[in-house]
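EI: anyone free to look at a 161-residue chain?
SC: sure, send it
EI:
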Amino acid sequence: MALSRGDRAAAAQARCGRVRCRRGGTSSVLAGTVVLAAALFSVGAAHAQFVVCNQSLDVVNVAIGRDAGDGFSTRGWWIVGANRCATTIRDELSARYVYVHAEDVFGRPVLYGSTEMCVGAKSFEIVGTEACFQRGYRPAKFLEVDTEAVSRWTLFLSPRF
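SC: here you go
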């Protein structure tokens, strides 16, 4: 099922409003805006389940956190070039919430969330969210993304203004 451009924009606007309300309404997301849109993929994109698209002119490093059933785990890094997308979760989404941390090449946060999880300096897969420093990792704030329990989702990172 494909949505018209206007329907996609309206759906994205409605979801953004809910995220801001749940977050308290005052936090800046991506220094202005992050647009969330449910991706109703056609057969050609059947393998992509959670995709992060970078609509800025900067390279962004992305880490993903999620409930793996026996606790939370984080994984990274995906390097997402300007106007590019990266498939961060290839299997069908089973949990309603996915947690995203994004930073620029200088290590400055691009997304502002409140859920603290661990990230590594290089490619990593970490089980658990506690005692990051003691385990050789660093804590980072992740943005909680409500996928509304759909099986496929795309997160769009908008440029800073």
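EI: The chain is about 10% helix and 40% strand.
SC: 👍
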